[in-house]
Amino acid sequence: MKKSYTLISPCFFGMEKMLAREIKDLGFEIIKTEDGRITYKTGEDGIAKANMWLRCAERVHLKVAEFEAKTFDELFENTKRINWSRYIPYGAQFPVSKASSIKSKLYSTTDIQAIVKKAIVDSLKKSYMESGMLKEDKEKYPIYVFLHKDKVTISIDTTGDALHKRGYREKANKAPIRETLAAGIMSLVPWKPGRILVDPMCGSGTMLIEAAMMGINMAPGLNREFISEKWRTLDKKIWWDTRKDAFDKIDNDVEFKIYGYDIDEEALEIAKENAEIAGVDEYIEFKLG
After folding, report:
1. Measured in Å, how far apart are the chain's first and last C-alpha atoms?
2. Cα separation of 31 and 267, whole Å?
3. 3-state secondary structure 48-86
4. What pLDDT is stored for residue 199 in this prediction?
């Protein structure tokens, strides 16, 4: 029987529509759209494909559970009740990396993190050992906890470094636009090869690089790694196939030229370097102006 996953991708407020379009284009089923996050169902290769191809998402989280908790006791017991050995293999690290609370009775994020961690430890002890310490010396499964109006959503981060870190922006000028936001703006324009595109104050070139990557159908996650690639719970072949498919989908035959200008010569040099690292420098012309 093939596995299926329920995933959650957070995004910038106002970018839900663009992200939803991307998720549907990948063939995934959207379950729920909320402010700044979309929940969707995927097949066995969903974690790899979502991380590789989503341009507007900030992360890809694997949803573990959802329940109501108005007290710390309820939070502890409901978390402990989850079969955590289904998600976390023996020896894996499982830091509770982040907790957020909005309009909930439980608002101390440090206490939320500590209680969820203790509950997961107790659950895993039952599965892997009756007493003693659990080992945490292998791959990481970062836990995220989100509370909204006393509803708790617990998930595991499959991404690692946030998705806006494409791997091409080694340098940046002051206050650079985030790559995911730049991609969202380009999809809103909408720009495609054959249309004119000029960025008169291009800075380190992020908007144009994102547009060029879209123009040749280059997956945004192609030149980076993801934390879930090291998971024993995911078939390595899925990741290999997803990456190979992304390489095969690049359209090197498409022809277009887009333009970036800036008054800062140093910023233009950074932009040129970033475009070269991204592999799209032949499609962008940068000029001082």
Report:
1. 59
2. 42
3. HHHHHHCCCCCCCEEEEEEEECCCHHHHHHHHHCCCHHH
4. 96
Per-residue pLDDT at 130:
59
How wide is the angle at C-alpha 278 spanned by C-alphas 280 and 36, nearest 5°? 110
Give the pLDDT confidence score for residue 134 in this predicted structure. Answer: 77
- The answer to whether residues 85 and 45 touch, using CB atoms and an 8 Å cutoff, is no
Task: Give me the average pLDDT of each 10-residue run along the chain (289 residues).
Answer: 88 95 97 96 96 98 98 98 95 96 96 97 86 80 97 98 91 80 93 94 95 97 96 95 97 95 94 95 96
C-alpha 269, offset from chain centre: 29
From residue 55, give the alpha-carbon distance in Å to each of 45, 106, 144. Answer: 17, 33, 21
How far is the CA of 258 from the CAs of 189, 201, 237, in angstroms? 14, 13, 37
Cα 181 to Cα 3, 112, 123, 152, 217, distances in angstroms: 32, 30, 39, 28, 18
Q: Which residues pair with 157 in a beta bridge?
A: 61
From 165, 177, 184, select the one nearest 223 (Cα to Cα): 165
Of 48, 10, 4, the residue nearest 226 (C-alpha): 48
Cβ neighbors of 227 (< 8 A, separation 6 or more) are 139, 140, 142, 157, 158, 159, 160
State pTM to two decimals: 0.94
Torsion angle (degrees, nearest 10) of CA 45, 236, 231, 77: 40
27: left (phi over 0), alpha (psi -120 to 50) or beta: left
**Residue 200, φ and ψ in degrees, nearest 5:** -75, -15
* DSSP conformation class of 167: S
Other CB atoms within 10 Å distance of the CB of residue 186: 23
Q: Please give the Cα distance from 275 to 205 (Å, whole number).
A: 7
C-alpha–C-alpha distance, residues 11 and 157, integer Å: 14
Asked whether 249 and 219 are in contact (CB, 8 A), the reply is: yes
